[in-house]
Amino acid sequence: MQFCPLSTVKQRITLGAPLPFNVRDADRTLLLARGQFIASQEQLEALLARGALVDLDELRRPGAEASDTPVAELPSLWNQSLDRMGTVLRASVQIDFTSALDAAARPVLALIDRDPDLAIFQIVRQDSAGRAPYGVTHSLHTAIAGELAARRLGWDEPRRRTLFKAALTMNLAMLELQSRLSTQVTPVTPAQRDAIREHAQGSVAILQAAGITDREWLDAVAHHHEVPTGAGYPQQLAEVGELASMLRRADVFTAKLSPRVTRAALAANQAARQMFLQDQGHPMSAALVKEFGVYPPGCCVKLASGEVGLVVKRGDTATTPIVAALTNRKGEPMIDPVRRNSALAEHTIVEVVDEKSLRVRVSPEKLVVLANG
Fold first, then answer.
1. Which of 34, 162, 332, 353 is in the most buried spot, having the most CB atoms within 10 Å?
2. Are 141 and 3 members of one domain?
3. pLDDT tens column, 318-350
4. What are the C-alpha distances in Å from 205 to residues 92, 94, 104, 219, 364?
């Protein structure tokens, strides 16, 4: 049997309600049977502190939580999944990492299955990431983008799972440094530059210390900054594997969409154009660009009607998504967002606009309901 820490599935516990699984001690001794109760937060914290475990086979079928959750609650489920992923990535060798990572990745993959548009929204609208540090969110965004592009390219599930885990763990050695650099206004120091150059091998070392032996996974992490021309780092390889190549492209693309203190995020349509041109239309880059579309969910746009809003769902073509109009033609906030189909002439998208000019905030819950209406 395989076990994962209770801490990775604690969001499934409701105090005073029947447990959906058995809870075991660190030595696998049964502590609480399925159907028993955890009565208080203090009792839960005590179980977490003693390293309580859950049998993976006793967890609900993969994706059950995502598939059963009402549409309006999906943004909250995304935040929970991001928090859980952050806990696992920062713990690394302190836990049964393989089992914990699988348990944390499973609901994210189910959420992507449930609503790919909302998955893309997480990447483009990065203010929805909430409390998680940049190092964690960027790893997850890269994993999401890689998964979607790999699906478009027809990769089989085992290969996509390896890519997903490689994306999540590619920066284990520099999670804290990434978060620091995202808010740093001074130039990168020589020590920081050395850490950046060494992080791929450092991440591999952490994975190996955690018991990871999958060679494809390890190589993808080790080589995710290598370029076939030999211009990459740290080894200047002339030949790079398929997984590492996809990982590098997803990493670069999602980084373009990420804001820094010293620069704003690149508009999604500009990021797509740069990616396609810089990579000379490589099939992997093309898959990323096509999957996101010209105006991906989360992109702020102005319509021919004069209304301004957020893209909430991809349309029949790359240039005709569904938009939640938030302001009218006079720039006045609407009482509630209005669903617009940009395939119609009166609602054609005329330009991408800076979301700071919108000055309207609508809850993700309202937007996801509108997108699925």
1. 162
2. no
3. 899 999 999 999 989 999 999 999 999 999 999
4. 11, 14, 21, 12, 38
